[in-house]
Amino acid sequence: MLRQNERGNETAMLVEDILQQATIFGDNACWIWNGPVSEKGYGRIQIDGRKVLVHRFVYEKLKRPLMSIEGLHHKCKIKRCINPNHVEPFISDHPDGGPAFQRAKTHCPNGHEYTELNTYRPPSGGRICRICRRKKDEIRNAKGRNHGKKRT
């Protein structure tokens, strides 16, 4: 699976090796990574001692190198997809980070408007709807209160 690189003293995983660890349903379909994944669910490999995201590595080898400020957005919404045709580069120069299409959203997935009062901005970036967060916390707390009680 790993091959010696030009220097001979370190190993480098080549694109063909990576593709052997993916389920490829066709050129236009998702290429699903079957190897290790990061905490966030993206395919991850180690090359010359560095942890690398697989979709980024494949994109750079088959399309073009990316600048350090560029990220890749999965158009297919499948985090383990490594098909370079399913991702598009974006430049994260906004304090919220992420692609412009995410920043342009005016409502959360449940339809609540993103306002200054209703929006929490975690240090890690992004936005969280306070109404949805409150409902989620209430459900979790209710489950905790009922934990261990006998049903009658």
Give the overall average pLDDT: 80
Proportion of beta-strand residues: 15-25%
Through-space gap between termini:
58 Å
Radius of gyration using CA atoms only: 21 Å
Tell me the total number of β-strands. 10
Number of domains: 2
Gross morphology is globular
* SSE pattern, N- to C-terminal: EEHEEEEHEEHEEH
Please work out how many helical segments DSSP would assign.
4
With strands numbered from the N-terminus, the spatial order across the biggest sheet is 1-2
Helix percentage: 10-25%
Keywords:
single chain; 152 residues; alpha+beta; 2 domains; two-stranded antiparallel sheet; 4 helices; 10 strands; 24% helix; globular; disordered N terminus
Describe the structure.
- With 152 residues, the protein is α+β, with helices and mostly antiparallel strands.
- It has two domains: 93 residues; 48 residues, no CATH class.
- The protein is 24% helix and 21% strand.
- The protein is built from four helices and ten strands; from the N terminus they run E-E-H-E-E-E-E-H-E-E-H-E-E-H.
- A hairpin with a 6-residue loop joins strand 3 and strand 4.
- The protein is globular and about 50 Å long.
